[in-house]
Every structure is written in C-alpha cells, then in structure tokens.
Amino acid sequence: MKFICSQKQLASAITIVQKAVSSKTTLPILKGILLETVGQKLKLVGTDLEIGIEQTIDAEILSEGSIVISSKILGEIIRKLPDAEVEFSIDNDHNTVIHCENSEFTLVGQPAVEFPELPVVEEEHAYQISQDLFKNMIRQTAFATALDETRPILTGVLMEIAENSINMVALDGYRLAFRQGTIKSYENSRAVIPGKTLNEIHRIISDEDTADVELFFTDKHVLFQMKDIKVISRLLEGEFINYKQILPKEYKSRVKVKTRNLLDSMERASLLAKEGKNNLVKFSIKDETMTITSNAEIGRVYETLNIELEGQDLDIGFNSKYFLDVLKIIDSEEIYLEFTTNVSPCIVKPTDTQNYTYLILPVRLAN
Amino acid sequence: MKFICSQKQLASAITIVQKAVSSKTTLPILKGILLETVGQKLKLVGTDLEIGIEQTIDAEILSEGSIVISSKILGEIIRKLPDAEVEFSIDNDHNTVIHCENSEFTLVGQPAVEFPELPVVEEEHAYQISQDLFKNMIRQTAFATALDETRPILTGVLMEIAENSINMVALDGYRLAFRQGTIKSYENSRAVIPGKTLNEIHRIISDEDTADVELFFTDKHVLFQMKDIKVISRLLEGEFINYKQILPKEYKSRVKVKTRNLLDSMERASLLAKEGKNNLVKFSIKDETMTITSNAEIGRVYETLNIELEGQDLDIGFNSKYFLDVLKIIDSEEIYLEFTTNVSPCIVKPTDTQNYTYLILPVRLAN
Which residues form the DNA polymerase III beta sliding clamp N-terminal domain (chains A, B) (predicted)? Predict the structure, then answer.
C-alpha cells in the first residue's frame, strides 16, 4: 500500500474521525484509525462500535491496500508535519513509513481485517436538513439529555419526522427541551439518537460549509451524510416518554423578560446558590418586578428585574443550573415564563417564535 | 467603611492581587483579600506570606475603614457585575453589602486586624529596568529553575546587579539559563528570587504599559513597584552555585542552525521520545547535515536538518524536553550549538547577540 496526500487534508480528516475513537476501549484495534484506498481516494474510519465516523479525502494512490494505525500517535505526528505532501509506504508486515519533506517516521500498524466493519445503511429515502437548522436544533435540545445511564433512553434525543416537520425532544426528569423545524418528509420516522452522537455532529458541522445534511434511518441505525463525511450511529432502544402529555396547555401567570438580563441575574444569583445546596434560587414575581434571591452560608444575593406580568403574583423556587442552561441557548431577545402554581412546571419560550419550548420543574420551597 | 469604585478597575485589581492568594493555605484569613481605604484611594492586598501583591485604585471614599473578604467569592461576584459603579457598605459586624445597579450581595467579612502586614521595604535606592527587558529576562530564565524542593535554592533565579549590568541565572542540575541586560547600578546587589514570584510578575507586566519597573532590596525581601502595583517577595536563603565555573570556555564543534527548523524537528522527534524513556533523542552531526533520531517501542523517527558545521563530527544524546524549552524562548532566527565531547555540556546561543547562554547536559548514549 502506498499513497501521497496533503498534510492539511489528512490532519483535518484525522481530527474528524478521531471523535469516534475512544481511548478507554478494551479492544486494542479500536484505538486505531483505519486507512483504506478506495479508487483514487483515501478513506479514514474511526469507531467505538456505538458511533462510526468516515471521511474520504483526495490522494494519489500508488498501490492499493489498507492498514490500522494508532489514532493518538498518528494524529500527533501528522499535525506536527509541515504543510506539504505526505507519503505513506506500508509493507506486508504492516511497517508503515511516513515521509514528509525532511521527516521520516516508521510505525508498526495492525492488519485492517481485524477492524470491525461499520453497519451498512442503505442510502435511499434521505431526509435533507440544512446544516444551520440542524446545528441549532442540536444546540437547543441535546444539553437536556440525562447524563447518568440509569435510564439509557433519556441519554438520547427523540427525533420525530412527519408532515414536513421535524421535532427534537430531550428530557432528564427535571427539564425538557423541545425544538421544531421544517423538513421535506417522504415518510414518517421516529428514532432516539444518542446525545453523544448529536454532540459530535454539532462539532463536525463546519460554519463555512452550507450543504444540507442527509439523514438515512434503519431500524437500528442512523446515517448522517455531510459532503465527504459519514457518521453512523446506533439508535437507542426502548419507548420514549410521551412528552406531549407533560407539556401544560395553560398558565395562570405569564412573565415577559429580557433574556440577557435574566441570564446575567441568574449567573450572579447562582454564584451563591452553587455554594449552598441544590443551586436553589427563589423568584418573587409581583407587578412589574421579579426579584431573584439566594441564601447560602457565605452570604445572600438580591437581584431585581423589570418584567411585564400578565396574571397572578407568584413565589417559586428553581435549581438555577436548569435555568442557566436554557438562557444560554435561546437567541431571542425576550422570553416568556409561564407558570400555573409554585409546584407545577414552568414553561420558557422565546417571544418571537413558536418553535421552541422548554419545561422546568420547580423546587418546593421550605416555607 | 463605605466607598464607591468602578467595577472594571476593581475586577482588574482583584485579578492581580489574587495571584498571591493561595487556596491551599491553612490560615483562613489568607484566603481573603484585604480592602483598605487610603486617603481617597482603595488598596487591595493578597498574600500567602511568601509573596504579597498590593494594588491601589481610585475610589470615592465615603467613610474610612478596612475589611477582609473571601478572595474566591469576591472575584466571582465582581467579575459578574455590569460595567458600572459598585458601592460597598460595611458595618461594625463586618457585614458587607455590595450594591451595583439592580444587584445586591451581602457577605460576612473578617476583621482586617487579623490580616498579616506585608514586610516593610524602604523605597530608596531603586534600580530601574524597562518592563520589556525585564519580562524577556524572566521568560528566558525562570523556566530553567528546579520544580522539586529538594534543593530550595534552585527553585529561584539568581539576580546579580553590578557595573551597569544585570544578570539573571537559573539552573536545575540538568540545564542552565543565563541572561544579561543593562541597568543603571547605583551599587552592587545579589539575591535569589523565587521563580514563582518572577512568573507572577511576568503575568502582571502588561503589554501596553511602558513605564519602568522599580526594584528595591533588603536582606530578606525584594519589592517590585509597577505603577499602582507593588509585589513584595521573600528572597531565597543559601549560597547559589558558582555558575561561571560551569560554563565551558571553548568548544570543538560549532553548529549553526535555524531555530525554527530545529524546534519543529525536535517537536516531531519528541513525539516518539516521550513515549519511550528519558525523552531521549540522538543528534548525529556530520558535514552539512544534522540528523535527529528517536527510537521507541511504537516506532522510529528520522529528521534531517541543514546546518553549518565548524569543527569535528559528533554523535550526542539529549533529553528533548530541555532542548524544546530553550528553542521556544529564543527569538533569534539562528542559533549556535557548541560541543566539546559527547559527554560534556552543550551550549546554545543566539547568533545575533551575546546576552543569552543556555547550557544543557547530554545523556550518555548506550552505544
């Protein structure tokens, strides 16, 4: 096997496929990246068996073949090489000589036959979604997935596609994030995608590239196709919670407030809240003012915000973390906070769009 | 005690004096910052008893006094406040109310009488040194101090002032860094300053401010005065090694090489060297070529560099870390490497100035 490619392209592709390589795997071959000639291209593959990432780059293929090389050391070497052509020569004993200008590295690779094949996903019936929209939908939902594995289904994001609409929903038992987008739907699909997979895709989607992302589903897997990159992920099995039942239909108090002001106040209030327990902050809503207070052993904080209130006055407590999370990802200048009682969920919504809803459970106040 | 000051100036001063506050101290009062009114100014002080940092900022003093407030929480709060005026009101029970626009924090401070006084250093007979020069001298020497405390004197940098010249020297038993500068010397001084102190001063010296740094010495302490900031540090006690004896006077081989090329090659070679033991890399110097090689279990590297050689061929081994450290801080385009034998020290020098000398001990090659 022998090929020549550009250092820049190779370094970039290694960085992408490395996102699927786990350093903690017990299967040594999975610590490697598969390099494989495909016609006049070079394919790179990394996988941890849950997620697989493939990128194809231009290369001058002098003789065909495939090899697996340690992801860590390969990445370090290629990134340190000058911006020039890199030549790989691999003999039948898997000795790999990497040559670039005045540098020559010799590494021992592993045979490619030991590398697991990625699941096959037939590339027909694609859903197409713009990169911008998809990136935003991930940003506004994936943070709300559960981190602990006690209920594995909650570590994923439910994706529902039907009637030219795509919904993404995540929840962890304390809060729920719902985002709707438009998509051309050839048929209906419903799948729970691991949060980790979506976070990796969010990182891969580049800000410059504007092509659509293509989605293909099988019963067990999903394939995301972005230009020359493929991400294949296992789906989560099990029944997702019927989230529509959880969302309240009405409210008794509605507060309109500037997103940025609320975020700043919450950040200050949570400085003391995080030193105490539960990150507890208390909202007191009355007329045109909302105060946010927090008490900890080391001190107290008292924040005042101008609001527009429609409905009843209210005192209610929250874990400030769940509020901070959502305030950081809402792009709208103003939001509504909708309340029913101080023991029922609060809804957070941008004022200028219907496509986002966030639900957060209150903390019962001692008093 | 009551005063009003600007959030920006206060946040900046806290960031500066915090560099002297240790979170690991066993004396709780030292986790705090002393705030003290001085005429129509506010003085902030942090110290860990080894180093003390003081900054004075403008303030409107409404009533005099002093208080100690937890450095961590005070810094977090002030940094999160809006860019506006901040008012502090402190009652006789040390309750501290911090008010800024719509935010009000209440913290309990500690009485200032418990805060240790910084050592008094009489401010006469100052040495003046330009910030740029001093910053560079620190950058080119302090990294070579010993990190472990088995020989405390080696954790410091020797400063010698005499005959309008200032020398700074650091060594750790494996390498030595020597930098010379010019200074107006009223008298001779010689002191060993903790590396930590100099690193903090390197961070404090701002790139915009161009005023000189003033140095004042006593037997036990040194004071660095920079505009409205004072840094007072204990000196290290004990006899510094007679470094002049260590520096070789002659060489048998002299190599001239481009600094950047050698750095790049060493960085690549050390990728494999660090996986092996001792970070061992081998130089083979012959005619117009220097090769750098490294062998590890995972692979080999072979780097070739164009050089100008004066004198004999040589094979010699080094710990790559000690070479990387110096190559990163030499600003000159080309350097000389001077060798005598492959078991005697190598000297690294810029080709365009006499003011810097670095010595590095070789690693004996197994052959």
Answer: 1-119
Among the listed residues A67, A61, A64, the one whose alpha carbon sits nearest the alpha carbon of residue A93: A67
**In chain A, which stretches have pLDDT less than 70?**
207-208, 276-277, 367
Pick A105's closest partner by Cβ from B73, B299, B305: B299
**Cβ B108–A272 below 8 Å, yes or no?**
no
Distance, in Å, from the CA atom of A59 to the CA atom of A86, rounded to the nearest integer, reads 10
Q: Compute the nearest-CA separation of A97 from chain B (Å).
A: 9
pLDDT tens sequence across A136-172: 999 999 999 999 889 999 999 999 999 999 999 999 9
Residue A289 has what DSSP assignment?
A: E
Q: Which residues of B touch A88 (CB under 8 A)?
A: none
At residue B69, φ and ψ (nearest 5 deg) are: -125, 140
**Structure confidence at residue B210 (pLDDT):** 74
pLDDT digits (tens, 9 = 90+) for A175-203: 999 999 999 988 899 999 999 999 999 99
| Nearest to B260, CA basis, from B320, B334, B159 | B334
Residues recorded for chain B: 367
The model's pLDDT over B288-306, given as tens digits with 9 standing for 90+, comes to: 999 999 998 889 999 999 9
CB A238 within 8 A of CB A182: no
Which residues of chain A are within 8 Å of residue B80 when distances are taken between CB atoms? 264, 267-268, 271
Query: How far is the first Cα of chain A from the last one, in angstroms, to the nearest whole number?
Result: 73
- Name which of A262, A360, A268 is nearest A316 in CA terms: A360
Half-sphere exposure at residue A15, Cβ-oriented, CA atoms within 13 angstroms: 13
Q: Do you know the residue count of chain A? A: 367
Q: Do domains A127-243 and A247-360 have the same CATH topology?
A: yes
CA atoms within 13 A on the CB side of A337: 30
> Letter for the amino acid at A54?
E
The whole-number pLDDT of residue B102 equals 96
| Cross-chain Cβ contact A301/B73 below 8 Å | no
Residues 6+ apart with CB under 8 A from A278: A319, A363
CB contact A264 to B (< 8 Å): yes
Q: What are the respective helix, strand and coil percentages of chain B, to the nearest 5?
A: 25, 45, 30
Query: Which residues in A lie closer than 8 A to residue B108 (C-beta atoms)?
Result: 298-299
Query: Considering only residues 169 to 198 of chain A, which have any Cβ-Cβ distance to chain B shorter than 8 Å?
Result: none
Domain boundary assignment for chain A: 2-114, 127-243, 247-360
CATH among 3.10.150.10, 2.40.10.10, 3.30.30.10, 1.10.760.10 for B247-360: 3.10.150.10
| C-alpha gyration radius of chain A | 25
**Residue A206: per-residue pLDDT:** 77
pLDDT at B252: 97
CATH superfamily of A2-114: DNA Polymerase III, subunit A, domain 2 (3.10.150.10)
Selected for mutation to probe chain B from A102, A293, A320 (highest B CB count within 10 Å) is A102
What's the pLDDT score for residue B278?
77
The answer on pLDDT for B280 being more than 80 is yes
Could B299 and A76 be called an inter-chain contact, meaning their C-beta atoms sit closer than 8 Å?
Answer: no
Asked if B245 and B263 count as a contact pair (C-beta separation under 8 A), the reply is no
Cβ contacts (< 8 Å) between B300 and chain A: which residues? 105-106
Asked if A297 and A272 touch (Cβ cutoff 8 Å), the reply is: no
